[in-house]
Amino acid sequence: MLIDPQRTLTIIQFELTRLFGSKRGLVTIAAFSCVWFLIYYYLISSAADLVSSPTFKDIAQQVFGRLDLLQVFSWGIPQLSVYWLIAVMLLPLFALLFACDQTCSDRERGTLRFILLRTTRSELLLGRFIGQTFILAILIAVTLMVSIVLALTNDLSVSTEQLGIALKVYGNLMIVVLPFVASMSLINSFVKSAKMSIVTYILLYVLGGIVINLIGYFLFDISLLFYLYPGEQIDRIITFDASTFDQLGLPVLQTCLYLFAANIVLKRASL
Amino acid sequence: MSILVEVNGLSKRFGDKQALNNVSFQINKGEPVALVGPNGAGKTTLFSILCGYLPYDTGEVSVFGAKPASSQTFNKLAALPQDAQLDPAYSIEEQLKFYAQLQGFTRKQSLIESHRTLDLVGLNDNYKVKPLELSHGMRKRVSIAQALIGSPELIMLDEATAGLDPKHAKDVREIVSRLAGEITFVLSSHDLSELERLCDQVLYLENGVLRTHQTSDNTGEESYLTLRMKTQPDNFVEIIRNVAGVNSVSLIQGKEYLVSYNAQNQSQSLDIEILKLCHENNWSYTQLFNGKTLENQLF
Q1: Which secondary-structure segment (H or E) carries B158?
Q2: Structural domain harbouring A242
Q3: CA-to-CA distance for B61 and B59, rounded, in angstroms?
Q4: In B, what residues contact A, Cβ < 8 A?
Q5: ipTM of predicted complex
Q6: More confident call, B253 vs A226
Q7: Which of A18, A102, A118, A266 to mutate to test the interface with B (most CBs of B within 10 A)?
Q8: pTM of the predicted protein model
Q9: How many domains is chain A built from?
Q10: What is the 8-class DSSP label of residue B132?
Q11: Paired sense of beta strands B256-262 and B222-229, if any
């Protein structure tokens, strides 16, 4: 599988214009901004109060199933702590929504037939995956910076060490969203529309989870299959003290596996 | 003569339907090639396989010496796939620029190239327009424009003039005719008179089988003239049949006659003699065709 960097780069650049240069993309950004505005307005701007509130800590601990979230709350920037807890749960959903139409609409419409006279299917798959990842990288960076700006406007100084934590938060969030985008690359290689890709994702993962549990209950344990689920490691990495495998290995492996499978399916697909 | 496409024993099945059955042919660099056949004959399937859109079951397919859709075919093979639509979110200029950049053009060159190809198909006032703002025929012309980006050696046009008004259909034919010296075209169409005007080589597909692989030259011992009359003169067949060298005269359809003759037994050209007879007998004709029309050759 030879990848031409120039063609892949061209696809990535065009993918970026899909969000930042088209009307539909700008509407999506507007919706994304509205959701984050509400989050900033109601949660992050009052993060200092929330972090010191036992009720919030209880809720957070119940949501993540962890009783050791104190480490996150001791970063010294409450806005960053609250941002991390919200973003790690919310951004995977945004990743699914943003990445739900990587190739399916183009395939259904026939536009891929024009493109694939000029590039290979593997380059297209990789270019679109990287393009979507770039889009998320930009959006995550913007939301993270707004949180830091909010901290600064609340008379908090941000030390170099805290900036390091912010960078770590950024890196972790990027790694968390990668398998979500890649799983959508795979689903896109066989469904016909963006809506169907979301529905298929829900069916695959929700029904899949039920089936794994039922087989485990009545027949034999196949819970290892849960390692195929994007975000499987989220509850373990929430406190930043998880193993390298959980923080990096598992999501990167999942991403590679999904892209590999997507490449095989897309290569065999009839257009 | 360099071989652009070589197909040996190609078969493709969709469920119970055998779309292509042991198809073999080759396309050499040169004159346009017509791909003809009734609906469902397998023309679009064959196009799709050559472009790499469809996998095939058995056989060997080589396009520019490589497998379909491999990078060796990029910049050499261009196509107008049937029913493929452009992305409605981008202007036609942006999309053609993107395609040109994928073909290796720089940002600046790609803009010039997109304008050049849009100008070729008569869309010079519509660079910034999005596909949904264009009529069906105009969208088709944009699709033809994308096939002209760069300097392809082989262009496959699937139903290129279907849905175009007569003026723009003529423009497309003129483009094909003009570029035929430097680019080899493979044209699929139901308009046989169009293919007749443009192509010498014909690939005729029926039920997935390549029935004919021929040229439309009037060669061999027996030659033909096809004469289309305005009316059906009563004694036309008898008079023409008595001309020296004429073997038979038959009414093919409507007012169209097929004259079979032996060219070697002719003292002067039969076409001149027939035109003289038309003049003497006051017969009005609409067309005199040297050979059998493509329609009569195939059906």
Answers
A1: strand B154-158
A2: 5-268
A3: 7
A4: 48, 51-55, 69-71, 73-75, 77-79, 81, 83-87, 89-90, 94-95, 98-99, 101-104, 143, 146
A5: 0.88
A6: A226
A7: A118
A8: 0.86
A9: 1
A10: G
A11: antiparallel
